[in-house]
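FAQ: What does the model actually see?

It sees only this:
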Amino acid sequence: MLKTRIITAAVLVAFFIPALFMLGNISWAYAMLVFCLLGSYEWGGMIQLSPLQNKLYVAIAAVAGLLAVYFLRQFGFHLFFFKSLLVFAIVAIFWFFIVPIWFKTKTVVSNKLLMAALGLLLIASLWLALICAKGADPLLLLVLLATIWIADSAAYFAGKNFGKHKLAPSISPGKTWEGVLGAMIAVTIFGAVIYFNDGLGFHQLFVFPALWLIAGLGVMGDLFESLMKRQANLKDSGQLLPGHGGILDRVDGIIPSLPIAILMIYTFSYYNSAI
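And it is asked to produce this:
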């Protein structure tokens, strides 16, 4: 299982990194749209849409995505970026205020239309964030994603070897506080590496709380997907990625963290430029 997981991750990285640095913004937007549409299909399965409903759901998402790419081509990256910030602000409210209540109450939302709309919002925000971060600086996107990957891997190994205290046993019995601590230690080390590397341009103390918040949001996204799967009686969101499950199983931590990270970085940069 671990070997399969590592091989799959290596293959994904081998395709992802060249695409990140070699593709233009439009080509990247199309490539990430395909990736996110696969995630939308998995979400449709998790909320138990019928096969026909799920195909229609993905078709609607595809049309919306193509219209957004048209907007990007016609009006340019900067306007696209600023319009996307509004979406990021909306999802930030969802993750910071609604999800904690959802965790506490474990409410089962049976309204498929509402859950379908939520899925579109969350996955669209991920897609927009992938485009905005790459357009702003591919290296920034790589650092943000590396933070989640490092935190996820460290949490897995720390929890597996040292985990004793359950984080949220009624949602995800396998996750532990020791895993969270391992993730935070790992991203702190990663933060130190990029902080002291002058060539990367991240020599600001803001790096450390930013990475801690990103890692924490990653844990929240992981727990949220676990809750959705538990309510749908599913082990994985899909079977597309051997050793990982589905697309959403791989990006669950990125869905909240990447849009909010971009919003946070923009706000910090705007504040610094204003004073």
